[in-house]
Every structure is written in structure tokens, then in C-alpha cells.
Amino acid sequence: MRIAFLPIDNRPVCYTLPKLIAQIDKGIEFFIPERCLLGGLTKNADIERLFDWICKLPDIDAFILSLDTIAYGGLIPSRRCPETFEQIKQRVEKLKKILEKKKCKIYAFSSIMRISNNNFNVEEKEYWAKWGEKIFKYSYEGGVDSGDIPKSVLDDYLQTRKRNFEINKLYLKWQKEGLFDTLIFSKDDCAQYGFNVEEAKALEELGGFTKTGADEIPLSLLSRAIEGEIKICPIFLEPDCKHLVSKYEDVSIEKSVIGQIELAGCRVVEKQDADILLFVNNFRDTQGEIVMGVNTEPFNGEFTLPERSYMVADVRFANGADNRFIEELFKNNLTDGNFYGYSAWNTSANTLGSLICGAKIKFLAKKYNKDVFKRLQVTRFLDDWAYQANVRQTLKTPEVGALILGMKGFENRIAEKLNTEVSVTYSYPWERLFEVEVEFN
Predict the structure, then answer these.
(1) Out of 3.20.16, 3.40.50, 3.10.105, 3.30.1490, which CATH number does the structure's domain 2-222 have?
(2) pTM more than 0.90
């Protein structure tokens, strides 16, 4: 199968993770642009060269397409981009003409602009440093009482939102014309109320499909593009708490799990009918977040795996693994063919979408590559457990030397549990502690 993939930006989870997952099956020919062409934290994608890359693609079966990359230059630029609706419309209409000539299924997604609930402007416009929390409050309360937000700031913010919303409506029109096989509008870092929630409802009323999440959606669409279906049974380790809502999401963890399974082109079934069991280490009361100092009750029980295919979504904490649960998981054999993956990456949706994609490709692989699958698991345990849940908490700045020292003991333990060599280097691709890149030597 030949698949083209245009990421949302150049982060490891958006660029190297999809490549690694696709390589689990040697039968997949995977086309992805050079990383230098993609946007980052402070730079936009090279849109014209990406147009050229798309035009020169060979015949493919499926195209996984981040529309934000072409429209704005990436996910971060979609919130900062100063261009007008007409300028962006002209650009995406050029994309439409190119896509119409492609004889393949197109799986596309576009983000609904998020509303960060803090005054950090690293990923937002400059004025977010002073007015971010108040703009969030204004949005959350439905535009009631803007307080002392300057009119120029509020006008600019609302105009940016309106521009992006109108572009999304344009995409929806094209879907109805048959351009896209699948079109997803992603709700990034979503609360229960706000302008982004209202926009999602408006798109749904117009016939659009919205999904909580963002970075994992290209992986969910990659999974959806893979020919074949697998049957999955979710098993919640806290079954009485599956109605609770994860951080940065607006649906229950149960609905999030079911939605991710179905978006991936898989089917939710009962245990006796399942190809793979999906164990979900969900939370009681509230989801924790180690880096933000939000505690929650860790896993407190035994975890013995059945002798059948399984995968594990560890979502008790956002942005990292549950250390207590890892200790229980490591009592099991993770080297047999029944293990289909572990993930505890960022939000619940991020974890689930990436996990299911890797599992589906492994299960249906025509030419399975065991070594690549092991690399994927090494990456997840190093990033989600070793780094996010432990070493990151000891660091104040993104300094690689201190990171290497902190990770060594975890590397040895992971190598032993997965029965593989762990020879890696680390970097901070966006020069911040939030994400680390694991590269194999």
C-alpha cells in the first residue's frame, strides 16, 4: 500500500512517530516531505515547496493531509497567522485543484482554533502573555463581560477565530462535493464550554465531523486508511469512573476511547469477540498531571495480562505515565507476540490515537518488522515513562547533558524488559522541556 503523509508540523510525535509506526509493516510505502519543509514553534512551513512535493507524488492509495500546514503553515501558525480570509482561501483553492487530479482517497483534518487557559504566549499571539486567561474566561462564559480586555486585542482575537472558522466551512463544502474520503475537525485542548465548542457544534449542524484531540488525528487517519478492520474490546481498570472527563477534553474517557477506536477504522466489541484487548488505566476523581503538580490516586492493584493480544493506554495522568502502574505492567512478559503496544503520551486522545494506529498496523501487517515495533515501544517507554513522568521533573532547563544522566537507569530497565538493545541520543527539538526527541543510534 502506498501512503502519502503531510504532518501538521515538525515535532517528533508529528513527524518521526508516524514514520516509525508505518515502518512496522514493510509492505507500506510511506511518502513524507523533508522535515525542513515543515513548520515549527517559531517558523512556518515552506508552503510553496510543499505544493511542489504534493504535485510530484507518485500514484498513491491514500493521502493523510494536515490542512493547517498548507493553509497557515502549521498548527502554531494557524493561531498567529496575520493573513486575511481571502489570502488563505486563494491558497487552499490552489490545493483543491491539485488534489482533484489525485486518484486516491484523501483523509484530511483541520483544527478548530484552541483557547489556552493561561497567560503563556509561547504558542499564541503576543498579547496572550497579558490577556490569555481573561480571553479564556470571556470565551468560557459565552462572551459575557470582557472585563478590561482592550478592544483592539479582543477584535483581533475574534477576527482570527472567524477567519479560521470560515475556512473550515469551506473545507466542509468541498467534502460534500466529494473531495475528501474523510474530513475531521479537531478540537485541540478543549474545555467544556467556549467559542471553540460553539464552532464545533455549528460545524456538526452543517454536517461536519468533529473530534476531541489534535496531534494524534493524523495517526488515527493513517490507521483508518489501512485496509482491513480489527475488533477491539476496551477494558477500564477503574470501570466505575469511565464517565469522568480527561484534562484538555470535553467528553468522558469512555466516549474518548470509543471515538478513537471508531475513527481508526476499528470496531468496538465484547471481550469474547475481540482481536485485541485495550486496557485503559483510567483515573478516579480527576486526571492527574505530574508536571503541573496535579495529583491523583495512582493505580493500586494487580495487573495480570491474559494470554491473548492486548495493548495498554495509560491515561491516569496527562503528560506522562503512572509510575505505580508501570511497576505492575513490568511484572508481565512484554516480549511475546501478544503485546501490541503501550502509550501514555500527553492527552488521553493523543495516547489512544497513536496506540491504536501502531496496534492495527502490526495486526494487519503483510510484512511485519519486529525490530521496528520494539523501537516504537522503547520510544514510548523512554518518552512517556522515563522522561515525562520522572526525569523531566528534575530539570529546570532543556540541557541534554543532565537529561542523558537522568535517563541511563531507565534505559537499562527498558532494555531488560523488552529484551533489546537501547542505544539512543536525545534532543529538544523546540528548545523546551515539553517534548524530547529519542533518536536511535
Answers:
(1) 3.40.50
(2) yes
